[in-house]
Amino acid sequence: MRSRFYLVWAGVAVASWFIPQLVEALGGGIFYLVFLYGLLFWVAQATSWNMLSGFAGYFSFGQGAFFGAGVYTTAVLSARLGWPLLAAMAAGAVTAAAIAAFMGVVVFRLRILKGEIFALVTLAVAFVLASVARLVKFIDGGQGVSVTSLRLPEFFGDFSTSVYRAGALVAVLAVGLAAWIQRSRFGLGLSGIRDDEEVAEGLGVPTFRYKMIILTLSSALSGLSGALHALQIGYVTVDDVFNIRVPLFVILMSILGGTRHWMGPVVGAAVIHTLTDRLSAFGAENMNQIFLGLLLVVVVAALREGVYRRLVARRWVVLATFVATLALLAVTGWGGRLITQAGIAFGMAILVSLLPARLGSPAPAPREVT
């Protein structure tokens, strides 16, 4: 079973590597690679957040801190000190993990720092790192850091292709690791911590060690994704890196898709990224926050288990709705770009999954997915 799992994820990684050739063969441009990179970036970030907050139940607002640590470590080491880019990116992941480990030693030893207090502590870490970056001239000093001259090794391809391919590898690593954790004994221990930490500890789960491992691991993935994102940003500034956008988006994506399953953040990232990208494309970028706010209210109030399990519970109806809607849009030409048409079809499929089986009856309870 494990060998099959590894083969599947190796196959996914190989297939994702050749997506640029497929896009080129279908006549697509750089736009599609940029869109796909953005999707993969959010998949990696949301998945890393969900490892701690979804699997272990420790709700965190600190995603921006770990993401920012990866961005700035890579930018400073590469642009200022001349480190090779891949080494600087690895250092970004290590730096994020080290910050998380230091925080974990403090907060996990103090049992009172749980729930909303833990969330506020993680948010404070992001504020502290932003202040340090702004005040220390070597890091930023309020001037920003240019990384426009940095490039990945030539075998990754041209700039857009290389950033996409690296983003795909990071996302596949994050999702594959999350899937493996959920199926492992380690994942069962994290579930016990989420449900009742004291009972789990009484049953022999090494709660402190498990929490330290998942916090460090999830932060390293966030830092690695941030390190790569420094290339996409081009010019790194404190206001662009240490803001509320990253933690807000990853929380919404994970809750929308479902925090109890590794596929939840993937589905949530696909919905939110496509929605925000298409709103921006149609000149309604200022409406993003309104739509996201309304969506968050709906999700918290009515979709606590997330969309993914509802999609699975009605998989055939959902698939038929998606295919039929996409075919209709393709024939009529309504919606323009393929991404817009796919987004509309996906939205219709989600709406169908949320409808009750009979008018006036509650929606079916989704089956447990393992």
What can you see in these coordinates?
Helices cover 74% and strands 1% of the residues. The chain has a domain at 2-243. The protein contains 16 helices and 2 strands. The chain is mostly helical. It starts with a helix and ends in a 16-residue tail after the last helix. The radius of gyration is 21 Å and the shape is globular.
Summarize the structure.
The protein has helices at 2-17, 19-25, 30-55, 63-80, 85-109, 116-135, 159-183, 185-202, 207-233, 238-241, 245-257, 264-281, 288-302, 307-313, 315-332, 338-354, and strands at 145-146, 235-236. The protein has 370 residues and is mostly helical.
- Secondary-structure class: mainly alpha
Global geometry: globular
- Determine the N-to-C terminus distance: 14 Å
Q: For the largest beta sheet, what order do the strands appear in spatially? A: 1-2
Overall mean confidence score, pLDDT: 85
- Tell me the strand percentage band: under 5%
Poorly predicted parts: none
Question: What's the main sheet like?
Answer: 2 strands, antiparallel
- Using only CA atoms, what is the Rg? 21 Å
Order of helices and strands: HHHHHHEHHHEHHHHHHH
Oligomer: single chain
Annotate the secondary structure layout.
Elements: H1 2-17, H2 19-25, H3 30-55, H4 63-80, H5 85-109, H6 116-135, E1 145-146, H7 159-183, H8 185-202, H9 207-233, E2 235-236, H10 238-241, H11 245-257, H12 264-281, H13 288-302, H14 307-313, H15 315-332, H16 338-354
Antiparallel strand pairs: 1-2
Helix pairs in contact: 1-7, 3-7, 3-9, 3-11, 3-12, 4-5, 4-6, 4-9, 5-9, 7-8, 7-9, 11-12, 12-16, 14-16, 15-16
